[in-house]
Amino acid sequence: MAENILRSTNERKERAFLVGVEIKNEPSILSLSDSLEELALLADTAGLEVVGETSQKLERPHASTYIGSGKVEEVAALAEETLADIILFDNELSPRHLRELSLRFGKSVRIIDRTTLILDIFAQHATTKEGRLQVELAQHEYRLPRLSHAWSHLERQAGGASGRSGSAGGVGLRGPGETQLEVDKREIRKRIAFLKKEIEKVSDHRKRYRAQRKRSQIPVVALVGYTNSGKSTLLNSLADADVYVADQLFATLDPTTRRVMLPGSHLCLFTDTVGFIQKLPTQLIAAFRSTLEEINEADLLLHVIDVSHFNAAAQYESVQATLAEIEADHIPVISVFNKADLLEDAEEAKQLLAETDPDAFLISAKTGQGMEALKAGIMEQLYEKMLPIRVRLPFTEGALIAQFHEQGSIDLIENFQNGVMIQGSIPGRLITRFQNFVDKPTHQETDRPIFPED
């Protein structure tokens, strides 16, 4: 099962020294200093005590140690001076980097990168069977290439609960399971195959549940946003629920769905999803595919932004990029700038809204400010706003054809050999259901209509 890499809470906190690197021409949402500040918050969430930091700007990572040899000596001296237990890199390190850095720094400290840290936080916060399976899969897939290089770490034995002894590639992983340090790649691959099968079973259950929701025609709204933007607080306010809330990164991990009654007695389902973050590990995106499908299958996205955060604009862009990465950027979005109660200057918030999304809502989920206007906006998007669309539906999609006739407005319809082309408008909540059948008009139709208009 997925386990944490760090000390348990009843022991003293491990001391972490942070290392940030800015690579020229490598895209990054946050500046180097801001990224290090976020890394410090991640370290705090994982239960580490940050004792210092340093940074370096490079044309490209050094082949062996990622940072320059002079920087390695500097970090080693600073880690010794601050009594650091862990050297925490803000960048993902390759197996070779981990191996070489561990050799340079010796056994007195462990080398951990940002990916390892985020995987550990996810392991701490996963509470459902699905969440634990997904985290363990991500951990194993991250560890596998780092076990490929047989070197001294394979001769070490796993330590006690604190996980102080070395591990795969010098990362110091205490999970997924200390005894896993002694298994070979074949056993890990077998475990990965098993986990994927188990996750697929859960995914199939989710698919059946989503199909049932679609048949009920109850619209689904997914809350997305940067971690700690206040999504769970917003869900609690909308649904009068009691989803766990904490002022820390990744406080909630497993998706939570609640019923919400909108104005006019319209029922819809709101789903709180895992928070995004810059440099979100690709292993997590892959492992959490079935969970992220909750976003892709939603009728509407509420993009929640912490308007009081000094990097709100950058976080907004990071989430937009992640939505594009998981192919959810075609779904209608309402931007919700949350935590208005923490603002000292309302004018700055207005300027931020104007620069990012003029149609956004400014609210405080904690105090209720702006909530009625937000509900009305959601109601308009789902039930009142008609969006233009042209689709080519096969006759096997009879339910969608009927739905367009019943709830849409048709401007043009043409019958073809295997289906029908409909052009018109449909309610915003239905747009994603027709997305796979969008038909772009062309000057020459290869499939001539059976009953062309006169």
UniProtKB/TrEMBL annotation:
Listed Pfam families: GTP-bdg_M (PF16360), GTP-bdg_N (PF13167), MMR_HSR1 (PF01926)
Domain of life, source organism: Bacteria
CDD domains, A to Z: HflX
Gene Ontology CC: cytoplasm
Residues annotated to bind GTP: 225-232, 250-254, 272-275, 338-341, 364-366
Keyword field contains Ubl conjugation: no
Location of the protein in the cell: Cytoplasm
Keywords per UniProt: Coiled coil, Cytoplasm, GTP-binding, Magnesium, Metal-binding, Nucleotide-binding
Sequence segments annotated as region (Disordered): 155-177
Coiled-coil spans in chain: 178-212
Self-association state and partner proteins as the record states: Monomer. Associates with the 50S ribosomal subunit.
Entries under PANTHER family matching the protein: GTP-BINDING PROTEIN 6-RELATED, GTP-BINDING PROTEIN HFLX
Primary role: GTPase that associates with the 50S ribosomal subunit and may have a role during protein synthesis or ribosome biogenesis.
The protein's name: GTPase HflX
Species in which this protein is naturally found: Flexilinea flocculi
